[in-house]
Amino acid sequence: MNLxxxxxxxISTVVLISGNGxxxxxxxxAVKAGALPIELRAVISNNAQANGLKRAAQAGxxxxxxxxxxxxxxxxxxxxxxxxxxxxxxxxxxLAGFMRILTESFVRHYHGxxxxxxxxxxxxxxxxxxxxxxxQTGEKHHGATVHFVTHxxxxxxxxxxxxxxxxxxxxxxxxxxxxxxxEHKIFPLAIRWFAQGRLKLSDNSTVLxxxxxxxxxxxxxxxE
Length: 224
Ligand code: GAR
Known about the structure:
This protein is α/β, with parallel strands linked by helices. The chain is built from 6 helices and 11 strands.
């Protein structure tokens, strides 16, 4: 098993966002704290109003806005996005609240080096409004998943999950906040594993430290 860590050579990383960018902030903070051997080359948003752009600029990271509204179709937007991303030669592409469905060709291009965070315990609640749907179903537990991106929407091999309890008096907002807190822990951790060469996608499965995961790694929060 090769666990070689070359932290002197941070891996080039591009982050895609659409909104607030709190996950981006968690990644920036982890890099600043020396806990994440990546170089944040650029942050790209499809939404000019995304607050995450300010966070990136404040951290001195190059930002770009590429609005999907300026393109005739999904294919042409994804092609332009790919060209922009590839200027930075990323070894890792991070989707941190990037709210777009991606074309097959785009997904294939970044196969094995694109990861996403999703606010549910996948395979439950793919798509949108995950907190609301979990509440409506009466789930006792909910959470977040980091996964490799493949052609199946929110369906790529899972890497790590964090579970939170659903409380009797939870609202959409309170549940979302509890999940987001965990997202900020598991996303930097998964990125760190990837950057350290410990995490790979192989034959459509997640491999961590040389072992194929049958289930995503279950994160236990020790901070409370
Ligand atoms: C996060 O909850 C993330 O899991 C979700 O968007 C939010 C972005 O928050 N992503 C998806 O729903 C992707 N399907 P942030 O902008 O504060 O990081």
